[in-house]
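Lecture 7 notes: from sequence to structure.

We start with a single chain of 389 residues. Read the sequence below before looking at the structure.
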Amino acid sequence: MSDCLVSENHELKDIVDKVMKGERLSRQDAIRLYKSDDLLTVGRLAEYARARAAGAGKEKHVYYIHNMHLNPTNFCVETCRFCSYANPVEREKAYTWSVDRVLQEAGRGAALGINEIHMVGGLNPACDLNYYEEVLQAIKADYPQIHMKAFTAVEIEYLANLEGLSYEEVLQRLIKAGLGSMPGGGAEIFDEEVRERMAVKKTPAPVYLEIHGIAHKLGLKSNATMLTGISETVENKVDHMLLLREQQDKSGGFQCFIPLKCYYEGTDIEPEVHEPTAQDLLKDVAVSRLVLDNFPHIKAYWIQLGVELAQLALSFGADDMDGTIGEEKITHAAGAKTPLQLAKERMEELISSSGYQPVERDTIYNIKAVSSTAPKAVPPLQERLAVIV
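Now the structure, written as tokens:
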């Protein structure tokens, strides 16, 4: 079967054979995929792995969710170099919403029929555990149908330290108040040298993984992320994925991996030195699909990638485009020019015009509706690559 993808003397032939046999890739395999100049073969291999993981009848399914982002505060005690959302230079513009204001914002989404609220914010001592318990309780009381995906591992660590509680105690209280699952933000790059250069003092890899492991033990599903364009190497990215794969082997609660890219507006990072290319971003998607063999889903996050590159990433192993997203703030604060939100109809059009079947899901990937819009015929991958890359 591998002959359909590469010739016998192709540089990636042994890796292709391993994927076809369902064998786990090694660190060196992943590095070679990143360093290969044959982007087309890497994409086709990831697409094969995606279709196989999807299962019979779902080979062309690409998921999205009708959701909104909610950010109760952008004040943050941390000063990560790559963050413009909580830029310390702009602290006079920082905000902290009352519980009533958060509920008002949630109501705007509820009126549009959203299924999920994705809620994250800065590390703000004014927003303690009691505050977030009240927020969750208020939203769930008025809108019990909405799933609350909230609190990165960074926020859980901060709340635990602020309250003098264990991570498990914080999570148990938030679950009782209405927390339904966790997003994956805050992982950045696990490599300590990169984190030191980027002034990342929060939540090192062992803590991030521990918190997600505890969440999984308590029955929460969660996502995981990786941020690129912050001076990391290919080896750093591969090692990041391998730590996530190891944790997933242990606790099994990660649903989706989301490769992210840094935006530089409002930071002191030089984009011409660090900004990933389109090829880099497509390889992040493809290599993660091949290395993270125990993650069910890989996301092409259109807010980060841009709509056209996210569409192309669907042919590089991604099977999710995230959601309709009401007024995303964090990436746009750093200069993203992507739309603030996409209507459900537009999301389905983007998926179908990429050659896939749009499927509306809930937060934990239960299918809500398979779109009546059928996948459209698309040019060969090589032609589509030539337009963007």
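Residues 61-388 form a domain with the TIM Barrel fold (CATH 3.20.20.70). Keep this in mind for problem set 3.
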